[in-house]
Amino acid sequence: MNANPCCPDVPFPGHDKLVSALDEAVASGDEHAITSALRNTLCALIRDPDVHLPDCVFEPIQDHYARREIYRSPRLGYSVVAMTWGPGQGTPIHDHSGLWCVEGVWDGQLEITQYELLERDGERFRFRAAGGMQAGTGSAGSLIPPHEYHTICNADPDAVAVSLHIYKAPMECCSKFQPQAGEWFLRTDNALATDEAA
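Above: the chain's sequence. Below: its structure in C-alpha cell form.
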C-alpha cells in the first residue's frame, strides 16, 4: 500500500466501482443531466458496502476542515475530493469559481445554507440566506453556477463528518465572502490547498 493513501488515484476498496459509476454519470449530457445523475449515483455509492473511502478521510485536522483529493479523471476532467469536518468546523460564504459540483454526506451530518446574491458593488456583495438544510448520511445535493453561494458547517460538538465532492474540474481557488455591515460581504480570492494523510 502506498505510504500516502490520500494521493489521487491510490486504490481503496471499491475504487474502480466508484470511478466507473462516476464516469457513467459525468458522460450523461449537459450540466443539469450530469448533476442529476451524479446525485443519484453518489447516494447509491454511499450506501454501497463494497465502497470504502481511504481511512485517512475519517481523520480530522485540528485547525481546519480537510480537503483530500482521492481521484482525478484523466479522460473526463472531473475531480473527487473528500472533506473531513471536525466538530464545529465550517466555511464562510463561498463560491465554486464557476464549476458545477455535487456534494454528498458520506458520514455524519452537515448544515448547508444557500445564499441569494441580491446586488453587487465592486468587491462588495449583498447576500441573503435563501434556505438551509440538515444533510445526513446518504444525502446529496448539487450546485450549478450562478446558484453556487453557500456555507457548510459541522454543527455537532462531538462527531466528525465526512463529505464527498465531485467537481467539474479540479477546484484550486474560490471566492470567499467576509461579513461587513448588514447583509454586505467583502469578496476575497482564496487559493485552495489539499491535505495529505497524517
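The chain has one domain: 15-191.
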